[in-house]
């Protein structure tokens, strides 16, 4: 919101000489953020001149210029720039005549741009200044000809300071208006806030307009509210006021002071009638719309759009209407989108003689939806979305009517139409001591009462506090917390101490949070980069990555997806990691190791989630309440996923490149196990998204918690990734939950160890990890370490068999083992493998 200071001074006392910076500082005290300062950026001698004569001189370039003699000072007096009273000026415009009063920028002045003016030789003459156009002065976009003061209804003496005459010495402060403070989208609202901040006397412009308000009845002009489809139970229009002004002259110029104020406020001057409606909107915060009364057919009806209806709006675009759109209609049909934009058929134009003025109050939600649906943000919709004072429609319409009478020569009809629903607001009870307890500052009862009364509320003292009825222009004051904020704001934010709160003892990160951070730190320390991807997936991605057995899966579908192709919540982290890898590869980063911790969404099939239960907001939910809420959402375990591609070891002198593969994925799994303190068993496995034969199943305490391996080549090609992509994904919550807290420390053996090798011949389909488990179980407590060192398949073995060689290390805690004891334990392990898998010791 831009606020011209001269306009602000009409409704609140500004000390002479108050700067825009001082106004900004005062408004900041009451919570209005400063944005910028706007001026016309004009300085130096800019005066009213009179064209005495001119000579038209055609030029060789085909252009005709005028060599003008312009009086810039009264006879016998020097010009403001110290020169002669009559200046010779070259001008390329041809829209003025001898005797016209114009605006002359004399040497030494500076126009917006910046554009300094000096005497200079051009077209064979020394041009001693410049005759300015409206655009050169910053008053508008007209640059076709110079500004003739007669078109503004101005006849000032020659030599008059044009900067002050045209209001170009004004400045505007710009503030940021938050969505809850729509009343500040008006000079009235900002003036009131400035009065709160400084104590200056506030003069409400509505009170001045009320004196001219004829009231009227709904019979003065037929208006009907017929909203049969209210949103959230709220009728689209609660207030509708009209006034009629007849015999206006729309060709009259907009006064210079109004043009200047509108320009500083960020609104372009269009025509007198339109400018008046915009002026009152900025002044009071009430959007106004004017209709050419002679183009209306019958009365006005406010209703929702019917199927198939269209409307040509003021921007000459035909718009199909939605059944939720609130319309202004006459007997022909739609003539305007209520609160957003009027229709072209009934707009005020240069031929308008009789005007119907509309000032209404519309439902904020309805207006916001219509403006966004049609992509039609407007000054009116911005105000309606934030809430407009329902009590000012009548006075605002009367203010417009009075200005049209004063400036456009019209005659206002007595009274007008006025429809208003019940606007009673319920009192909010503010308990004694509540404000001090919430804000942390001791406020007296008088301070609380006076602050709320200054806001405009009706404050009634009760036995235990106050009953407060907020003013009509503050729809944001809905509870006692908002009232407490108003007290703190008006009493001064500087009174609120800056105290660092002390964290209550006995709290901190949970075990799960500490482990998750440790996992991220460990993977990052190992050279991987953490990424954050979107939690959205396609149906194909969830089908392929969301189930280890490739069976059908259930997914959570988004009600309002950002992208129709990714309308499901993910069941796996890998698709997001693949997308991140593809993006990095396209930018030349060929060697990648990335990981992500995040939630996946695993709904159960044939189950509907959701609940209408919501806990009360003024107390901590009970355990039963939390359980009810938790059961209403699908399981959302936290996973950790890793993707590695390119070279795990880059090529260097004496060292060939080592491409990444399943070994690196398994190494990342071991890093996670180290961070958690878990024992993760790695077994041969399968997954529809991974390469057959290069997939590992990951288990903790006998439960499958994830898979690791290489991405299926077909999926890699589909995603434009290299053929070999190592991936791993674990259910981190499950790994943490299945791992006992703490790490068991074993004493270091000081006695000599006995080492033996064991080669077993088994069927090639038997996983080596299961054979190792059998040997470990059979060898007993003396076995300290077991490691697979060879997997041989070839000559000397039966078809379909393989030879697994394990390195075994035995040690006793209390004695030195003999070779016989170690051999006995080894053979016991071999016997266990033979019993379970038919393994035979290979000689």
Structural account:
The protein is an alpha+beta fold and 843 residues long. The protein has 6 domains: 2-40 and 171-203, Phenylalanyl-tRNA Synthetase, Chain B, domain 1, CATH 3.30.56.10; 46-165, Nucleic acid-binding proteins (OB fold (Dihydrolipoamide Acetyltransferase, E2P)); 210-420, Phenylalanyl-tRNA Synthetase, Chain B, domain 3 (3-Layer(bba) Sandwich), CATH 3.50.40; 428-495, Phenylalanyl-tRNA Synthetase, Chain B, domain 1 (2-Layer Sandwich); 511-602 and 637-737, Bira Bifunctional Protein, Domain 2 (BirA Bifunctional Protein, domain 2); 754-841, Alpha-Beta Plaits (2-Layer Sandwich), CATH 3.30.70. Helix content is 27%, strand content 26%. It contains 23 helices and 42 strands. Strands 28-31-32-38-37-36-35 form a 7-stranded mixed sheet, with helices on both faces. A 5-stranded antiparallel sheet has the order 5-4-3-6-11, with no helix packed on it. Helix 7 (256-264) crosses helix 8, helix 9 (364-373) runs antiparallel to helix 10 (379-386) and helix 13 packs across helix 14 (480-491). The protein is elongated. It starts with a strand and ends with a strand. The model is unreliable at 214-218 (pLDDT under 50).
């Amino acid at each position: 919101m831009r606020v011209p200071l001269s306009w602000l001074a009409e409704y609140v006392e500004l000390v002479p000489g108050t700067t825009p910076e001082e106004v900004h500082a005062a408004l900041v005290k009451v919570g209005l953020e400063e944005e910028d300062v706007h001026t016309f950026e004009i300085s130096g001698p800019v005066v009213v001149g009179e064209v005495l004569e001119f000579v038209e001189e055609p030029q060789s370039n085909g252009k005709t210029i005028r060599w003008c003699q312009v009086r810039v000072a009264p006879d016998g007096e020097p010009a403001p720039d110290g020169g002669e009273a009559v200046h010779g000026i070259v001008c390329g415009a041809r829209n003025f005549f001898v005797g016209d009063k114009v605006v002359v920028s004399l040497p030494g002045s500076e126009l917006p741009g910046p554009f300094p003016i000096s005497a200079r030789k051009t077209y064979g003459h020394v041009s001693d200044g410049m005759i300015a156009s409206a655009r050169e002065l910053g008053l508008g976009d007209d640059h076709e000809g110079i500004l003739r003061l007669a078109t503004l209804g101005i006849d000032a003496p020659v030599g008059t300071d044009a900067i002050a005459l045209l209001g170009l010495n004004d400045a505007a402060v710009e503030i940021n208006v938050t969505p809850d403070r729509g009343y500040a989208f008006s000079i009235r609202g900002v003036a009131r806030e400035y009065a709160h901040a400084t104590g200056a006397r506030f003069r409400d412009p509505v009170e001045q307009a009320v004196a001219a308000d004829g009231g009227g009845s709904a019979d003065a002009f037929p208006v009907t509210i017929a909203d049969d489809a209210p949103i959230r139970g709220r009728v689209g229009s609660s207030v509708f006021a009209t006034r009629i002004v007849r015999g206006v002259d729309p060709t009259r110029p907009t006064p210079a002071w109004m043009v200047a104020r509108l320009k500083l406020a960020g609104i372009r001057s269009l025509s007198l009638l339109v400018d008046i409606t915009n002026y009152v909107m900025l002044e009071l915060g009430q959007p106004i719309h004017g209709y050419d009364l002679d183009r209306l057919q019958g009365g006005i009806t406010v209703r929702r759009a019917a199927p198939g209806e269209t409307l040509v709006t003021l921007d000459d675009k035909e718009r199909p209407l939605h059944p939720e759109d609130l319309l202004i209609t006459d007997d022909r049909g739609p003539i305007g989108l209520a609160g957003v934009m009027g229709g072209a058929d009934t707009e005020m134009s240069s031929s308008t003689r009789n005007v119907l003025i509309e000032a209404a109050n519309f439902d904020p939600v309805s207006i916001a939806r219509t403006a966004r649906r049609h992509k039609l943000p407007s000054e009116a919709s911005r105000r309606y979305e934030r809430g407009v004072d329902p009590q000012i429609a009548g006075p605002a319409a009367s203010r417009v009517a009075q200005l049209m009478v004063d400036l456009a020569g019209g005659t206002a009809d007595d009274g007008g139409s006025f429809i208003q629903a019940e606007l009673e607001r319920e009192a909010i009870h503010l308990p004694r001591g509540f404000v001090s307890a919430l804000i942390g500052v001791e406020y007296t009862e008088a301070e609380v009462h006076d602050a709320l009364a200054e806001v405009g509320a009706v404050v009634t003292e009760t036995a235990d506090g106050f009953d407060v009825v907020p003013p009509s222009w503050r729809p944001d004051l809905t509870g006692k917390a908002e009232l407490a904020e108003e007290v703190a704001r008006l009493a001064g934010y500087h009174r609120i101490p800056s105290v660092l709160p002390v964290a209550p003892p006995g709290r901190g990160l949970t075990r799960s949070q500490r482990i998750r951070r440790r996992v991220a730190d460990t993977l990052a320390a190992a050279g991987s980069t953490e990424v954050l991807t979107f939690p959205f997936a396609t149906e194909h991605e969830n089908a392929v990555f969301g189930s280890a057995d490739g069976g059908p899966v259930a997914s959570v579908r988004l009600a309002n997806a950002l992208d129709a192709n990714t309308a499901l919540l993910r069941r796996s982290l890998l698709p997001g990691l693949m997308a991140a890898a593809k993006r990095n590869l396209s930018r030349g980063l060929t060697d990648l190791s990335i990981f992500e911790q995040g939630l996946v969404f695993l709904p159960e099939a044939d189950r509907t989630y959701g609940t209408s239960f919501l806990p009360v907001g003024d107390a901590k939910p009970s355990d039963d309440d939390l359980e009810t809420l938790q059961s209403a959402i699908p399981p959302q375990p936290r996973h950790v996923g890793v993707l590695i591609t390119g070279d795990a070891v880059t090529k260097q002198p004496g060292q060939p490149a080592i491409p990444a593969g399943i070994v690196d994925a398994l190494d990342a799994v071991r890093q996670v196990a180290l961070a958690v303190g878990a024992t993760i068993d790695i077994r041969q496995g399968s997954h529809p998204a991974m390469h057959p034969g290069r997939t590992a199943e990951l288990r903790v305490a006998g439960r499958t918690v994830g898979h690791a391996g290489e991405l299926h080549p077909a999926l890699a090609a589909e995603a434009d990734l290299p053929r070999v992509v190592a991936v791993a994904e674990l259910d981190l919550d499950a790994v943490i939950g299945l791992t006992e807290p703490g790490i068991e420390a074993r004493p270091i053996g000081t006695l000599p160890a006995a080492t033996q090798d064991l080669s077993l011949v088994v069927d090639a389909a038997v996983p080596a990890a299961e054979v190792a488990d059998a040997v470990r179980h059979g060898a007993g407590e003396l076995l300290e370490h077991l490691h697979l060192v060879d997997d041989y398949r070839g000559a000397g073995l039966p078809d379909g068999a393989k030879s697994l060689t394990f390195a075994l290390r035995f040690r006793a805690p209390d004695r030195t083992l003999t070779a016989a004891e170690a051999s006995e334990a080894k053979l016991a392990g071999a016997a266990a493998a033979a019993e379970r898998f038919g393994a035979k010791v290979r000689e």
